[in-house]
Amino acid sequence: MAYETILVETHGKVGLIRLNRPQALNALNRQIITELNAALDAFEADTGIGCIILTGSEKAFAAGADIKEMQDFTYPQTYLDDFIASWERLSRTRKPVIAAVAGFALGGGCELAMMCDFILAADTAKFGQPEIKLGVMPGAGGTQRLTRFVGKSKAMEMCLTGRFMDAAEAERAGLVSRVIPAADLVDEALKVAAVIADMSRPVAMMTKESVNRSYETTLTEGIRFERRVFHSMFALADQKEGMSAFVEKRKPNFGG
Ligand code: HXC
User: Fold this and answer.
1) What fold does the segment set 200-248 form as a domain?
2) Are 191 and 178 in contact (CB under 8 A)?
3) Is 256's pLDDT higher than 90?
4) In the chain, domain spans
5) Cα–Cα distances in Å, from 29 out to 75, 97, 106?
6) CA 50 to ligand 1 center in whole angstroms
7) Residue ranges lining ligand 1, Cβ < 6 Å
């Protein structure tokens, strides 16, 4: 598929997707979401890929859903089309996905970043849910995921006022895993992704599934799920390889 609004690259075992509508600060319209979903499908199907990075430009990861596209939407249309449902493809990705965020991650852009497994932020990153200033509220998980990331007080303040959070605050609040100088963001994301992509593929995917399960269930059920998945790992050749490599003092070579 030829893409017009994203750039797609492969770096070894890492798939990189760059949102690329610079004229609109990567505002998320139908086309960009359709193309993002197609690129995710392709990387998921590619057995050579072990980790995916989603990034934007230096100025914007994404400045939100496309306001110019949305302004004339009607309630029946959004309901009948189930507007936003197509965005959920990202959160259903089974391989690990890292968001590398520089510049604005606002509204749907912040929500897209939060659908990834973790966020690496450039020191220029700005996160916000400013939908309320447009007479709407977050609609792609912002009220739910932001609250789980940063707690009720900060999430409520951000959603009710539209205030932006800078990278340092986002790191303190637990929204991002690390802050990186902007010039190094993509290189650092590629390094982290390469580390993940070199791990056992099924173990990385099951680990992701297990961490995500903690959002969906009680502690007792989550622990039980984790234990079952953990037990199943002893059926993997990668478990034998990983533990033998440790004992033999060599680097493991996971086959997946
Ligand atoms: C459409 C957008 C856009 C958006 C920016 N642009 N954000 N177009 N939708 N979300 C366009 C501008 O219209 C402008 O195009 C160009 O990108 C550059 O933007 P400027 O505003 O000139 O840049 P700047 O002055 O640097 O300000 C940057 C900004 C501002 C602070 C990020 O653009 C801004 O506030 N954008 C909107 C942020 C927002 O409200 N996001 C939430 C959207 S609602 P032209 O053609 O005029 O030059 C949302 C709902 C989610 O996301 C719910 C479900 C998904």
Assistant:
1) Lyase 2-enoyl-coa Hydratase; Chain  A, domain 2 (1.10.12)
2) no
3) no
4) 6-197, 200-248
5) 18, 21, 14
6) 33
7) 24-25, 27, 63-68, 84, 104, 106-108, 130-131, 134, 138-140
The fold of 6-197 is: 2-enoyl-CoA Hydratase; Chain A, domain 1 (3.90.226)
pLDDT of residue 84: 96
Query: Which of 67, 91, 114 for mutating ligand 1's site (highest number of atoms within 8 Å of CB)?
Result: 67
Predicted pLDDT at 1: 78
Burial readout 113-142 (b: 16 or more C-beta within 10 A, e: otherwise)? bbbbbbbbbbbbbbbbbbbeeeeeebbbbb
Give the Å distance between the CA of 118 and the centre of ligand 1: 24
Q: Take atom 33 of ligand 1 and give the residue whose Cα is closest.
A: 63
User: 27 CA distance to ligand 1 centroid (A)?
Assistant: 7
Residue range 159-202, pLDDT digits in tens: 999 999 999 999 999 999 999 999 999 999 999 999 999 999 99
Confidence of residue 3 (pLDDT cuts 50, 70, 90): very high
ipTM: 0.98
Asked if 197 is an active-site residue, the reply is no
